[in-house]
Amino acid sequence: MSYFAGIDIGSTAIKVALVDAEGKIKGVHVADSGSLFHKNAKEALRVLLEKNGVDRSEVKYLIATGYGRKLFKEADDSISEITANAIGAHETGKAYGGVRTIINIGGQDSKAIQIDDAGCVTNFVMNDKCAAGTGRFLDVAARNMDIDLEELGDYHFNGKGAPLSINSTCTVFAESEIIGLLANGHGKEEIVAGIHYSIAKRTVRLAKRVGIEDRVYFDGGPALNKGLVAAIQDELQRELVVPEYPQTTTAYGAAVLARSEYLADLKDGL
Amino acid sequence: MSNRSPERQPVPFHQSRQAREAEVMLDHIVDDFLENPAGMKYFYDLFRQVYIRGESLERQGPQVGITCIQAPEELIYAHGASPVRLCNGSYHYDQIGADFMPAKSCSLVKATLGMLCSENAIPKLGKLDLIVNPTTCDQKKKASVMMEGMDHVVHDLEFPNVKESEASRVYWQRSVRQFSERLRALTGEKLTKPKLRAAMAKTARAQKAFRTMNGFRKNSPAVFLGKDAFLVTNAYFFDDIERWTAALEVLNLELAEREKAAFNAAQKKAPRIVFTGSPPIFPNLKLPLLIEQAGGVVVADETCSANRMLYDMTAVDEWLLNDMVDSLADKYLKPCTCPIFTRNDDRLRRLLELASTFKADGVVYQSFAGCQVYEMEQRSVADALNKAGIPMLYIETDYSPDDMGQLSTRIEAFLESIKTRKRQQRT
Hints:
A: 270 residues; 5-stranded mixed sheet; 8 helices; 41% helix; 20% strand; B: 427 residues; 16 helices
């Protein structure tokens, strides 16, 4: 059998996706990036193949994406995560009636991408430098409050009062703001909701710069957080399309591209 | 004023951080690309000599530092002095400047001031006899006093905010004449028609060579890369003008050969990019390099460190000396496409014209964090370009290398989207 793989080596997590000869998704796997990017990436790929009973030789083409893409020499090719994200979201979005705008929040950066009907990137924006409003921000905030990342969604919906406002534009300052609110006896639920709204506002501002069209797709690790999804929908005043595996869209996009690159090579007789 | 930098133990220049920074960048410019033109060797060596080994260059007469391209060089030459442009692209000097400049100010201004007050300034400067500071952008305007505080002699060259009005024109012509008086006081040489004509001929020859080089960039596929074009114009900042022109003429001959042989300096389908906004100044060629390392090619630029500065020739031969000076002044005002003017539709027109003449696929717009005029203008520029079907990537950055990973992702994505677009148009 022939399979095609995409590996997205991000700042926080490594995501691997495998598609079969028809381009249908066969399996995904997520692992921590850790400090040994390259070793962990190879390991993540091995685990994915093992889980799905696929031999490495059956993977005909492998495309790497994400910050670590250039260091992953095992890949046949590499592509920027923006293009890979667009392809993945376009493919996944078909089941939802097609998407045109993508909001992606990653570990270190957030981006908004606009695609056309064919899934090609027409415009994109990315946060400049600062990690405010990204997964890292959620991570730091959760740790401050002694909450597991997975529980943030529950806290968001269990608040009794209005979400508190977190105004700092910097992760570090926001951290001290959160500590201040805790010290003043505010409930964690209201603070969590406040954090989600603060990220949502920033993200929507970014998305407006790229122009919001049609259905908006939301992916990246933080899209697993239902509270954040609700906050963004609220700020955006429209429904979001959140896929089943939001974290692996980009890896899936790379796998889809790997398949078409392989087929194109075959056609060219390479 | 105690603006002197706190470099406590002066190290020899070639061991300094700024020299290492320049070396790293120059190595990228030279080694990351195959088949650099042989004629570029002169320029690579020049940067090595000045920015890395720290040897000073021989130039004629008093040294007049200029902080902006709006200072008429022809006048400086005609008075027997040599201009040297002070714009700086070094992250190290940027950090020195950050000691006394607002955090949100432009890297270029910070680095220039940082260099001027550093114990270990780039030796190409030698001793500056005068600094002429055109009052163009706000940050440069306010720099005059600081430069004086660093014991430099500064002449403010008054520059108008509007370029269309007759009042501005007269005002500017008077400023230029005052500048000429100041130069006379410095060098003791009176301005005469033959001297001015000779100076104009000298810069015209340089401009002609530059135009020829630029002409080769219209070729598709590209005969040479944008990073080399930037290096050539950056060398013009401080090299002896005649040596520079001669070296460029040699390079042009080689480029003509390459053109004949249909030589490819980039990949065949490399997206062709027009570069605009804040100027790439050595060693901060970060963005042009990232573009070309990612497989694009910078075919034209609209910045004050390259195209804009050497675009037009002065073919002025009026009957009277005063009229000559006036037309020289006009040449510095009318075609100027700097965003500091209240209105400047010429900049948009010029960008669109560049994109079509140089068959560009996209525009990369660099704005140094803290450069308000470019930040404010980018939206209208993007709108105008998009209307013409040309995608634009806006990037706000500074001299620090911190954001290179993120920038390379954005640039690659931009080039990938251009490629997909072209592929779709073909099929």
